[in-house]
Amino acid sequence: ESTTVVVIGAGPAGLTVANLLRRCGIDCVVLERRARDHVEQRQRAGIVETRAVRMFHEWGLADQVFGGIPLSGFLEIRIAGESHLLSQDDGSEGPPARLCPQQVLVQNLLSTYVADGGDLRFEAADVSLHDLTGERATVRYRDPSGAARAIDCAFVAGCDGDHGVSRASIPDGVLTAYPFDHGIAWLTVLADAPPSVHPLMAVSPHGFAAHFARGPRASRFYLQCPPDDHPDAWPDDRVWSQLRARLGDPALVSGPITERELFQLRSIVHDPMDHGRLFLVGDAAHIVSPMGGKGMNLALYDAEVFAHAVSDFLHHNDDTGLRSYSPRCLRRVWNDQEFSHWLTQTLHDAGDHPLAGPFRHGLARARLDRLTTSPTAARAFAELMAGLA
Ligand code: FAD
């Protein structure tokens, strides 16, 4: 069996690559380890940034892929109970960011691709990559009946996340990893509780907290906690009382908690993002700490750069895009890492991050003061949130 591109993984990165390649008339096969249900129910990110919204418009896919509603236009930062609304107007023309839960984007990308006649194979087990530096690469796997299959291809798009097989197939010593650990954990809670009016991030002496919409009746909350904390130490009562204290909102409406997880705030960049015929796309190449909501949006960016590069090569015999894929993506990755790191430090240090100390606390308060009083600082922030800087 043979195709032009084998895409490993059907998350936001893989499904965007697959849809864009089809729009360019390029054959591909998507191999996904999990079942369709699992992929379609995985709840994570919730905001598609302005840049990515406009990208789907340019490809004629906006109507098919978006659910949700356009973003309110404001972000609320609450400092010790006092509210500051930051305009998300970045000064550019065109459609704004959207509140669109990741699973809705994934469901829509998936059905659009399949309706277009796209080839997507779920429950592909034991995927392995071969001959990545040869004339053609080969991807082997087992189909759900257990039969061994092999597909030869010109390119492999490694879209299988941080724990996937793609990056692990690159020989030792080829990539350099740049990891960073913030020394902070977040308890994340999904609840059937009314969403906040605006995306809300709160600084308080009890620690950082945030409240984001995940649909008309669902919310995702975040609570800063020590790295060695455990979700079992957070029964419902404690979650809601801490949220009320940190958000400075004694009237916060609670609801059934549907998911409760603890994760460490960490980032990593792998450089370069390609090896021979393999191109890493999205979380397979980089993880960005969640503050600023850039993880999924970076995956969408990489996907478009890759699709353009393959199209230029196949349709115009121009390999510039393929050769510049890694530096071009990494430029944006580092830009967004910097933004996320800055925002993470600022919003934790301004509260009571145990490692911050009084000097960093003072710096963080000064940054927030500038952000909430200088229109120029607020505009620069809006541009970064939009993904236009
Ligand atoms: P993934 O979504 O991880 O998809 C990888 C796919 O590959 C999966 O379907 C997986 O099953 C499949 N796969 C893995 N291994 C194999 C294999 N060996 N063979 C075949 N298939 C394989 N980002 C934001 O922008 N904003 C947010 O608010 C935000 N919040 C988040 C909250 C949480 C709790 C988490 C965990 C993440 C959050 N992120 C957020 C990050 C965002 O979810 C990721 O950046 C995004 O999912 C990356 O997409 P991806 O397609 O690269 O990888």
From TrEMBL:
Swiss-Prot/TrEMBL keywords: FAD, Flavoprotein, Monooxygenase, Oxidoreductase
Pfam families registered for this protein in UniProt: FAD_binding_3 (PF01494)
Transmembrane segments: none
InterPro entries listed in its UniProt record: FAD-bd, FAD/NAD-bd_sf, RIFMO-like
Keyword Oxidoreductase among UniProt keywords: yes
Broad EC category: oxidoreductase
Annotated FAD-binding domain residues: 3-335
Superkingdom of origin: Bacteria
GO molecular function: 4-hydroxybenzoate 3-monooxygenase activity; FAD binding
Enzyme Commission code(s) on record: 1.14.13.2
Name by which UniProt lists this protein: 4-hydroxybenzoate 3-monooxygenase
Gene3D superfamilies, per the entry: D-Amino Acid Oxidase, subunit A, domain 2, FAD/NAD(P)-binding domain
Organism: Actinacidiphila oryziradicis
